[in-house]
Amino acid sequence: xxxxxxxxxxxxxxxxxxxxxxxxxxxxxxxxxxxxxxxxxxxxxxxxxxxxxxxxxxxxxxxxxxxxxxxxxxxxxxxx
Length: 80
Hints:
There is one protein chain. By secondary structure, the protein is mainly α. Helix 1 crosses helix 2.
């Protein structure tokens, strides 16, 4: 499978919220889009931000403890 793991330190919780936002951007503005230039890409991102801002709500992030066995099972499931 084509899986990449990116582990972030637990003190970098702001990264998780940025990842949520990038996921929304990717799904709603970039997925399956074809851009012929950097300017087209930039315009699409700026248009998304402009449309997203009026209804934006804060992300709620809760740190949860993951035990080693849970992590191993998750990795095993991803690889099968």
